Amino acid sequence: MLTGVFQARKKDGSIYYRANITYRSKHISLGSFPLETAAHQAYLEADCLLQDDSIRIDQIQFSDYLLKHEKIVTLLNFRDNHIYIKNPVYMFRSYFHYYLTPDEIYKFDIDDLFYFSEHKLLKRGGHLYVNDYGMQVTVLSRYGIRNFAVAGKDYLFANQDPYDLRYENVININPFHGVRRLNQNGIISYHTAIHIRGDYQIGIYDTLYEAAIAYNKAADLARQHGIAKNFPTNFITELSAKEYAQAYTEITISEKYKKYVKQLKECSLSYRKPVTK
What we know:
Blueprint: E1 5-9, E2 15-23, E3 26-33, H1 36-51, H2 69-81, E4 89-91, E5 95-99, E6 105-109, H3 113-118, E7 122-124, E8 127-132, E9 135-138, E10 155-157, E11 170-172, E12 179-184, E13 187-195, E14 199-205, H4 208-224, H5 241-250, H6 255-270
Antiparallel strand pairs: 1-2, 2-3, 4-5, 5-6, 7-8, 8-9, 10-11, 12-13, 13-14
Helix pairs in contact: 1-2
């Protein structure tokens, strides 16, 4: 066998070749290949990347290599930072890059290094997510951003770079359900709506917390009138239980909405058939 190559067999008995390299006492798998020569080429590429520190992560042309871009990033990070991370992460002093593709590179705070070392970053339908305990968890949820939030309306990037996911750069404008931030000639207010058979306006409020509590109050009213729907609850940890209760009592919601849920209940009752014995 050529250097760095090991022969293996698939379940059907067919032969393939695995490439491996050892660096700083770490045994690293480089991938599987159909030909021995291809596996050896992968080994030679890895050896060159690990030995030649003039090859820099910000100048490399991934398309020039047989190795996958994930493996190249892993090798260069191990060479330069002396830490082996299985995911395509390259570390800097206070942040790191995650190479989702050679051209799609995300920046995260160094505090998130352990999480993304263990969780592979994936993308589907334009949304970034990881598989966590068998569930698909959106990356933006780590910033308190809801799954259905809209960039530019519910959250924005301070430096206008959507690839910069450091906490200081991601600004969550509307962290609560049913709340939308309004900016009318520089005057900020918050619009609250609830979805039952379409969106129904609850009111416009001066503060974000008032708008969030108004949503909770509207959802409670709907439940009281027998509307069977799984309304989410806005949790406002910044307020004490006493402060929340006082605000809940004082905040008003739309009279039209109150009449609307009352009519829904009356319609529901009118359609019920009498029970016969």
